[in-house]
Design brief:
The protein is of the alpha+beta class. It has helices at about 85-100, 110-120, 130-145, 180, 205-225, 235-260; strands spanning about 1-15, 20-25, 30-35, 55-60, 65-75, 165-170, 175, 190. The longest helix is centred in the C-terminal third of the chain and has 30 residues, at about 235-260. It holds the Pfam family RecO_N.
Length: about 260
């Protein structure tokens, strides 16, 4: 049996002497695995980096077997990101999360498109960490939906209103308005405004961090913990970069306020 498709490398794990088992995400076949001979050779060493777009040929005697991949580089995505911790953390978090959560052999065109959108964003010369985190959050929201755990952020679960949605119920994954959620706000998750579609607010380091906490909560509770897995470490590094930026911005604003008071 043989098929060909384009794909994005998600992970490559060494197998034996100089070979590897590669996870790749394709638009038509979802996450798929293949054995790559000579993975550490000079020709393939830089090809199998997570995030790279490749042309794949898969061959096996039977569909349920671990097939062999023939891999050709289409677009090098990983190399240009070296030296940018936020970009590398975003790339690693996205690829690792998809490897951990997507079932093998099921088509998830939405996940493929979302990953490509993240990669396109990371290819920009000047990209703020909060923009990277927001793109990752959108990918994770789509992933939750693909896996059957989609959040309903369209209207308030209690009143049905579509206005002033600022919370999410950790129990149901549905949005809650400010007024309806006020008595329970300590038990609700913040809903960052940039996720509200036509009513979307700005993406800041603070709202992007809130978005990571929101999707992270549901990914852990519904998808990862039941399989005895955890969120990628790279995701925590991105969240830490955002938290540092929030602290830096707060310190700067405080200094400006103090200067204004002394003038």
């Amino acid at each position: 049996m043989e098929w060909q498709d384009t794909g994005i490398v998600l992970a490559a794990r060494r197998h034996g002497e100089g070979h590897a088992i590669v996870d790749a995400l394709t638009p038509g076949r979802g996450r798929t695995r293949g054995y790559v001979r000579g993975a550490t050779s000079r020709r393939l060493r830089g090809v199998l980096e997570p995030g790279n777009e490749v042309a794949l040929t898969w061959r096996a005697r039977l569909e349920q077997h671990l097939g062999a991949f023939q891999v050709e580089l289409v677009r090098a995505r990983a190399g240009p990101l070296l030296g940018d911790p936020a970009k590398l953390a975003t790339l690693s978090a996205a690829c690792t999360l998809l490897t951990l959560t997507l079932p093998e052999g099921e088509a998830h065109a939405g996940a493929f498109g979302a990953l490509r959108a993240v990669l396109d964003l990371l290819a920009g010369l000047e990209v703020a960490p909060e923009a990277m985190a927001a793109a990752l959050v959108r990918l994770e929201l789509g992933l939750l939906g693909d896996l059957g755990y989609g959040l309903d952020l369209s209207r308030c679960a209690a009143t049905g209103t579509t206005a002033d949605l600022v919370y999410v119920s950790p129990r149901t994954g549905r949005a809650v308005s400010r007024k309806a959620g006020r008595p329970y706000r300590d038990k609700l998750l913040p809903l960052p405004g940039f996720l509200l579609g036509s009513q979307a607010g700005p993406v800041t380091a603070e709202t992007a961090g809130a978005g990571l906490r929101l999707t992270g909560f549901f990914l852990e509770r519904l998808v990862l913990h039941p399989a005895d897995r955890t969120l990628p470490d790279a995701r925590g590094r991105l969240a830490a970069l955002l938290a540092a930026k929030v602290g830096s911005d707060a310190a700067t604003d405080g200094g400006d306020d103090a200067s204004a008071r002394t003038e």
